[in-house]
Amino acid sequence: MSKNDFDFNKALEQLQAGQGLTGKDGVLTPLIKQLTEAALKAELEQHLENDNSPNRKNGSSKKTVKSSVGQFELDTPRDRDGSFEPQLVKKHQTKLTPEIDQKILGLFALGTSYRDIRFHIEELYGIEVSEATITAVTDQLIPDLKEWQSRSLDAVYPFIWLDAIHYKIKDNGRYVSKAVYTILGLNIEGKKELLGLYLSESEGANYWLSVLTDLHNRGVKDILIASVDGLTGFPEAIASIYPDTEVQLCVVHQIRNSMKYVASKNQKEFMNDLKPVYQAQTKQAAETALEALDAKWGKQYPLVINAWQRKWENLSVYFNYPDYIRKVIYTTNAIEAVHRQFRKLTKTKGGFPNENSLLKLLYAGILNASKKWTMPVQNWNLALSQLAIHFEGRLDGVLDI
Length: 401
Hints:
The chain has 401 residues and is of the alpha/beta class. It contains 17 helices and 7 strands. A hairpin with a 5-residue loop joins strand 4 and strand 5.
């Protein structure tokens, strides 16, 4: 046995002494090295047999290779005329398997910091990776992200939720706040689907118009109900692209905004009087309660009452539907849950050096979160039958009946 051959007896002694199979100084690392080098030598032999030129072996070169069982020096055989192209470990390849990349991407998708990723990789595989290496690995997501952002979408979505979340991104040497526009849809099967992420300088109805135009260009021809926050001009922006879409303003947003303008000493009483408005069983009952709210508080808080009256057409859409549809559309909670996941991913980041560094992290998080979106929402078949009646003809051709 050559001194470089894997010694099974020695390996057994190392295992009995508590040495690990993988990672730094792993028992299996010399075996993987030996098998890899043997395979490369066999590749060279085959190459020389098929080579008609007077070619021959020409020693070997060394390079450090990272593998899932540890890091080792690999002797790569060479030929005289340099025509040998190894396939198992290519000339510039420094990783033996994609497992390390997958582990880095998995940790990245959980929002793990680069420093902690480096620690975990070294602990698992005994390999030191630089931040530049981690960036290069995670940059593999960018082409997939671009493809995902431009993919074709379904023709009809019964529900969509639209909202924005803000992050600090470096721009011309300084960090500025930018808005990430998020669109969450509920498809015809009742399953959640993130339709897109868009990045802009700030949140505004004008930019939402361009986002909705992009949705239309990607194949979305009809949206039954859109649930949005109270941004001025939002319903009008939606109507310009999807004129038949019913727009429900988020009631929770409206309540929060209202309470900002109510004195703290009156907030509990005001809230008790407001509940009959948004918790009413019918739209008529809600309007009666809103009139009572105006009669009692209108002179003291005209700004608040006027806001409810002015937006009432879009705040009251959910009263047209039974409870199991109301719960879905009266608030933007569904998309805020997605944003909570985003915040978990980004909580260790004070800011981002560029737009791609943010978007690839959010995309990785989407891939992770969407694995759980396998079941339709509760009572979906009932909801769909109600929608088919309410929006007569608009689900024809997309329902499998």
